Amino acid sequence: MPELPEVETTRRGIAPHLVGRRVVGVAVRNPRLRWPVPPQLASELSGHQVVGVDRRGKYLLLRIGLGTLIAHLGMSGSLRILPARTPAGAHDHVDLVLDDGRALRLTDPRRFGCLLWTRGDPLRHPLLAALGPEPFDAAFSGDYLFRRTRGRRLAVKALLMDGRVVAGVGNIYANESLFFAGIHPGRPAGRIGLARYDKLSAAVRDVLQEAIRAGGTTLRDFVGGDGQPGYFGQQLRVYEREGEPCGVCGDSIRRRVIGQRASYFCPRCQR
DNA sequence: CAACGGACCTGCCTGC
DNA sequence: TGCAGGCAGGTCCGTT
Known about the structure:
Blueprint: H1 4-18, E1 23-28, H2 41-45, E2 50-56, E3 59-64, E4 67-72, E5 78-83, E6 92-98, E7 102-107, E8 114-118, H3 126-129, H4 142-149, H5 156-160, H6 171-181, H7 194-213, E9 254-258, E10 261-265
Antiparallel strand pairs: 1-6, 2-3, 3-4, 4-8, 5-7, 6-7, 9-10
The structure holds a DNA duplex.
């Protein structure tokens, strides 16, 4: 589910309701996520104020009291602000009860997400330390991609989805970015020149920016912090559009598995 | 190192 | 109607 735009949409949706609020209780209904929800969560959070809500790649960083809650939404996770005491469903894992009668609720049916606690610098946490630059950071450039890919035969789409190369780009937006850059997803990363990487880095930024503006992409179950779906799905040019005509040339969109993930492209526009 | 396959989960859709 | 199979937005880990 959530790639960078969905996580950013979530961040923007929940932050105004969290920052400045105090956590008055923690309800862990089901600690089973990718890693168990830490048992000391309630004692670490209770009575402390939320200082900020940041994002790094697809991770949300909730600065609370003496540490940081690191949240990842996996494939099916969502975080929402609800009235406290809203009845919990089968996949509601954790509630942070706030001092204004509301709660932040983590829901995650597939349990690929996680909720971790650290008192140290979250950016040095093992899960975050190796992440590549943010797509909107100046360090993410055509030049950077060019330099990182010399001699590599990996498919460029798999490269874009490698968080150590760039943070936050998942399957939907890798497909869409490559379409706008006119690059075939299966092309070996080392066989792409600087000019095309300039185009690709710009395409990644543009696609993510537009997706954030639309509130993310809801294919099945994504909801933002306010429980609303995202509308970028209507603007997808290739993702899950196998057999449909390319909006540029009219040729039929193809689907192929590259790097173990479904990949969509226009065989005429993307080389 | 890079590259690949498997693993972790549930829900939903399709086809028999 | 029921059931098996395939597929889904992620990413870690172990093996070549």
